[in-house]
Each structure stands twice: as C-alpha cells, then as structure tokens.
Description:
alpha/beta; four-stranded parallel beta sheet; globular
Amino acid sequence: MEPGNGQVDPAHAEQAGKLRDLAYGCFSSGHKFCRNVCPVMQVTQNENHSPTAFHANVVAMEQGLLKIDDVADDYVHCTQCGACELRCPNTLMAGEFYRARTRTVDVVKSMRAFAVEQGADRPNWKRWVEATLEHKNEPVLDVPVAQENVRTWAKDLDLPIGGETVLFVDCEAAFYRTSLPRAVAQVLQLAGVEFGLMGEQWCCGGPALEMGYVDQSRFLAEHNLADWRATGTKRLITLEPHDYVHFTEDYPRYFGDDFDLEVVHVLDVVAEAIREGRLELTVPIPRVATYHDPCRLNKRKGIHQAPREILRAIPGLEFRDVDHVTQWSYCSGAGGGLMIEKPHITAAISDQRLARAAELDVDLLVSACVWSERPLTNAGYARDPQIEVRDIMELVAESAGLQVDRVDGHAATTHGSTAAEGAQA
Ligand code: SF4
C-alpha cells in the first residue's frame, strides 16, 4: 500500500503510533504559542517549519495523508533548542517544567530517524555522517581530521592519558578551534584540577543522533565508553554543550546503568574554582560584553548562572546582560544540524542574535559553545561596528594570566569553506 492516499503503510503507522500522544497533545490545542520563540520560524515565517507542523505531520501520517518523503525536509528546520517546549502552555499548565513537558525535540529526532530508516536521507547530513564514520571525527573545514592530530592542541601541556577524570574535547575544538581546549586545559591545571585525555577520542556521536543516524551514533558512543573503561575513567569534563547533553541524556539511554560516569560541564568546574579561591582572575579585560546562552546549556540543561558568575568575576569587563536570561534565551541557529543542511537559515538566525547584542552597545559577544561561534563570528564581523565573538574560557584564561593565541574563526571561514562544504569534502 502506498501512503499518501489515505491508506496507511505499516511502517508509517508504527512510527505515528509511537508519537501519537505527543502529537495529539499539541495538534488538538491549536494555540501555536511556540511560533513566537522558534528561531527558525522567526526567520523563515513558513508554517511548515513550526513545531505545530512537526506534530500535525504525525497526525497526517497516522491517517495516511502524508508519508515521510513529504515531510522529511520540514524536520530539518529545527535547531533542537527546546524553546518551543518551554513556551508551550501544555507544559506550563502541567506546572512541572522538566517532568511533564511537551517533547517536540524528541518528535523531531524520532522523525529524522524514521526518515533515515526509510531512505529519505537529507544529502548533506548523509555526507556528514559518512565522513564522520570514515574518520571517526566530524569533518571540520579543511583541517585534516585524523587520530594522529586529535591531541595536537595539547602539545607541551604534559597531560596524561586516562585517569579518574577525563577532559572530552569536541571535534570542532580539537581540530580547528584549538586555542579553546588549550585554554580550558591550562585553566584547569591552574585551578589544581587533575585530569587526563582520552586514549583514542572519537566523535561523541551527538550530531549523528541529532540528524537521525541512531546506529551510527551508538557505534561511536560504544567506542568512547570502551576507551573510558580501558583507562579507568569515572568522571568526564565537557567543554561543549552538545557533548554535555549527549553524555547526560543519550548515553544513559544507550547503556543504562552501564553508563555510570559523572558528567560535569567546565563552566560549573571553573565557577566553583573561582568561588573557592583556587582560580584567581587578576588581569583586566577592558571590554563591554554580553553573553550568548548556548541553547543546550541554558534552555536544555538550566546552566545559566555559572557563566554570568564567571563573567562578573573578570576585572575590567563591563557585563551587560540580555533581557532573556533564563529559558527564553536567544538561539544562534547552529544546532541540530541546521547549519549543515541549511546554512543560510543559520546565518540569518545568527545575524538576528547579533542584532540583539548590538542593542546593548557592546563590542564583545561571549559564547560558551564552539559550534555557535562560527556563524556568530561571521555575523559579528559583518556588523558595523563589528562585534567580536569570543569563548568564555579563553577570556578566563587571559584574565588568569595565561597566554591564549586565539585561532580566529572568521579567518578560516573567509578562506572559502563553510561547515556544509566541509561535510562534502
Ligand atoms: S506551543 Fe506546544 S502545543 Fe502549542 S502549538 Fe506549539 S508545540 Fe504545539
């Protein structure tokens, strides 16, 4: 039977059945408040890209009116920021934000996975994941992505392999934004935190999962867990928000109780070190700055106080906060694979984010997400006056008196590559 003519294909019926309750919870309410906070909708103004449409598609699929080929592209238009879930009155009325909330991000992930299963792949995502599996790390611009380079950033830092605590370094940071993990490692050393690096570090598998490639994500995760097991690791420090979400939410789903590692984000570790006087920030940074909340840290995991505490501890830095501080924070447009498949939409969302920073009359936008940094940097440089984008940990390192030879995201992107082109390489 061919779905799309009112007759329901069994695979489609099974998929729609899995998401049925979530979809009807949204579809029957019809209030569509989420459109006002959805970063993609704000840019495209296309109803097919709204969280409501993501749920309505499931209902139509259940009735045999649409098939996955008809709607797979709709689901690309989501950064998985989670704003819709927080804005949804169905969540608010339940009164318990994190226990009974609308799960639009899960619907998006599930429908993307179904698209992959049914052969309705998105071309750039497919190339990206194939390249990741080939090299075991994500494709990153024109930089050679290979195991022999995975720790080049740590040259001369005298870091051990393995140990109780391991610093997990994101692919983009390990191969391209190399000054960031270097700054993080030096700050941790200065604060007296003992840690090592992975023996053989593969991609965390998070991006593959976000794009719908579940088996591939799990394959990468299994390798990483085996590596931690082999080196006696019990605690992970992550420096990248997507890794943090993947390790705290998806790895436990993959491995159940076998995933018994503690996962912490470096912002919490550093804020604590400053609070306890183990890390002193003494070198002034005379800039006017605001902070970009990465969606996965703030909206998804509630980490928004630690970075503000850190920024306020930097002498000379004038910090001007956005009005949307907690769960209503703005998105960069870089997450959920959107930048790989639809880079122009990511660019427009980043530009919108920079416009909000410009309203505060700042010269610095501080991020804590290496993936958001590239589109934000491009948007910042395009502004007049320009707004520089820096990672918070590099500022911490500078203020702690460490030398940071920054690798500038703009310099490389203007040399002819985008993330999407990198995927095709
Ligand atoms: S706010 Fe929630 S229930 Fe309402 S339309 Fe959006 S996703 Fe659906």
